[in-house]
Amino acid sequence: MNKLFLPMGVAILPALLGACSKSSESDEKVIEKPEVTIENGMLTPEVLEAFGRIGEVTPSPDGELLAFTLTYESIEENKGNSEIYTMKPDGSDMKRLTTTASSESNIAWLADGKRIIYIAKDDDTDKPQVFAIPAEGGARKRITSLENGVECFKLSPDEKKIIVASAIKAFNKDEALFKDLPNTTGRVVDDLMYKHWDEWVTEIPHPFLGDFDGESASNFVDIMEGEPFECPMRPFSGAESFAFSPDSKQLIYVSRKLKGEEYAFSTDSNLYLYDIEAGKTVRNLTEGMPGYDTDPVFSPDGSQLAFLSMATAKYESDKKRLMVMDMKTFEMRDLTADWKYWPEEIVWEADGKSILFAGYCEGTEPVFRINVADNKITTLAEGMWDYHHVIPTAKGILALRHNMLQPDDLVEIPLQGGEVKQITDINKDILSQLAEVKVEKRMVPTTDGKEMTAWVVLPANFDPNKKYPAILYCQGGPQQAVSQFWSYRWNFRIMAANGYVIIAPNRRGVPGFGEEWNRQISGDYGGQNMKDYLAATDYIAAEPYVDEKRIGAIGASYGGFSVYWLAGHHEGRFAALVAHAGIFNVEAQYLETEEMWFADFDLGGPYWDQQNAVAQRTYASSPHKFVNNWTAPILVTVGELDYRILASQGMMAFNAAKMHGLECEMLVFPDENHWVLKPQNAILWQRVFFRFLDKYLKAPAAAAPQQPAADSASAK
């Protein structure tokens, strides 16, 4: 599933600072763990970038070792890279296997437990390829040599086959037009989806099935040859799009076999069954199911297939159903039909009787087990944490977990639930130096008589007898959980370190509180979810430690839309506003974005459909129509490679504020997309963010809302 407006960039890239050494494989510098000294317990943008980021944990076949990636970034080099490490399951004997200037990813063990295979850049071809390295350390050996490289891979259980994703040219170029014009930069466009997220669609990934002899892979065949469809689906899908049967005779792959306008308006991905011996796709397993079908996983004996499915066409934030299919009869059932929440990850336990998963639930992301026979669900790990990357082992369950105050570490959960044991402490040296910050859960009454879960993050070294400025955090998505997330940009701990109270409501439209709560926002932009924001602001502003005259509102993507909308309706509540990659003109957004299904479903339809009451209500509430009510200073930030919400949306908002006579600033990144990913850009963003908020929420003048000039123009 591809979120249309992903909000916060939670650990999207690896991490930073510090000493560099020369790579043994090239002349590029290798990014090492930084040495960080923290003054007065202060979390700064530079320190935030210095955190190590653990990921891709996978146990060896005998369970005696864990392989994982660990990532750091360099401000000086303005990039990051990950390396492969191993350790014992108790966290001891940590050993580094790779030392390269490029990132290693997609790690997996070979069955003998002596080697690890993974993707890394090949120095000879400058393309990512699959490599193998001894688990005890040593030289790497290249396994694949595909002309266009490898994006992801998965080995068959018998290790005789390997499926990889590799790029092919998109089916949209008339070569005759470009003959003898090698230097032209023109693109001829005759259909929708000509660009996606941050790239023009000139290539698409295809699945290539090859032979593997234990040392190298060969005889690759494009199993979708001639089909103008992508697999895995851009931009977020990877090896989870493939599933081999336990006997290695069948392969399931996920694809949305649509293109152009159909692709742009549909979320209809399907699971396809490929017969390896016959060499052909033999069945669409989810034919007639109009929403996203993803994440296939065979049961240990191969008799059943679990996968995630959404029922509603065009609705990419629909409830995820945990489906199980009988692989003989192809009959399926929904294991979570009677469950209020839904899973985010699924993995079978070894006995094939139950499935483990993480899922958003009431503002956090616990770990659950569901019995396949009777659909009974048990909670195995919970608390003020988000768990993910759940892995069953013979002794327990491994998972990564984080919360608003600390990034991921590896933990072990007992098989029957109980006390969770933390295995790694990757950032102990940094966290131990930081000033204490506290997170509290509040239940806020809403305007329609319900209760809303809201998180309140208190400033570092909090003194209840003082008054602090506050920030309302507006979530993106829009259907994205406000859970115990850790973000490297919208980071609540660094905001608290700078002396702010953070108000983070789970307003209408976020998952984890049932389908009705999640779905209500669709077709109601500017409606109940905005009332929820104002209710949370008023509720927390009544606390004696909050200075009600020094409250700001911040957000990205749909959160940016929220900031622009609140700018015209807040009635003096906010003294400063910050919007990143936000929707300002909803009519323009309907035509500018690329994945049209979301705009069509969530906005209610095209703005020219005068008979569509839902659509007309949506466009009537577009933030650009209320600039005449804007009073608060505003900071706008955009990336010019953002094709989801174009930078022109933010530029329009900035121009409107300027012409309206307001104090405003804009930060433009020509080389960033919907997020801010490059280390130096990330630091600049944080510096500008806090400089702006401090100016209007901490200075004496912050108490007085701005009055625009009488003769200034308003944007209609």
In words, what does this structure look like?
The protein is an alpha+beta fold. The chain is 15% helix and 32% strand. The chain has 13 helices and 40 strands. The protein has an eight-stranded mixed sheet, sandwiched between helices. Strand 26 (354-358) and strand 27 (367-371) form a beta hairpin.
SSE layout:
Blueprint: E1 20-22, E2 29-31, H1 45-48, E3 53-59, E4 66-74, E5 79-87, E6 95-96, E7 105-109, E8 115-122, E9 127-134, E10 141-142, E11 152-155, E12 161-169, H2 175-178, E13 195-196, E14 199-200, E15 203-212, E16 217-222, E17 242-244, E18 250-255, H3 260-264, E19 270-275, E20 280-284, E21 293-298, E22 304-309, E23 321-326, E24 332-334, E25 347-348, E26 354-358, E27 367-371, E28 377-381, E29 386-392, E30 397-403, E31 406-413, E32 421-422, H4 428-431, E33 438-445, E34 451-458, E35 468-474, H5 492-497, E36 501-505, H6 515-519, H7 528-541, E37 546-556, H8 558-567, E38 576-580, H9 586-592, H10 596-602, H11 613-620, E39 634-639, H12 647-659, E40 664-669, H13 679-697
Parallel strand pairs: 35-36, 35-37, 37-38, 38-39, 39-40
Antiparallel strand pairs: 1-2, 3-4, 4-5, 5-6, 7-8, 8-9, 9-10, 11-12, 12-15, 13-14, 15-16, 17-18, 18-19, 19-20, 21-22, 22-23, 23-24, 25-26, 26-27, 27-28, 29-30, 30-31, 31-32, 33-34, 34-36
Overview features:
716 residues; alpha+beta; eight-stranded mixed β-sheet; four-stranded antiparallel β-sheet; 40 strands; 32% strand; globular; disordered N terminus
Arithmetic mean pLDDT: 93
The tally of beta strands, per DSSP, is 40
**How would a textbook summarize the main sheet?**
8 strands, mixed
Query: Helix fraction?
Result: 10-25%
Q: What is the terminal-to-terminal distance?
A: 35 Å
Tell me the radius of gyration.
Answer: 25 Å
Number of distinct helices: 13
Strand order of the largest sheet: 33-34-36-35-37-38-39-40
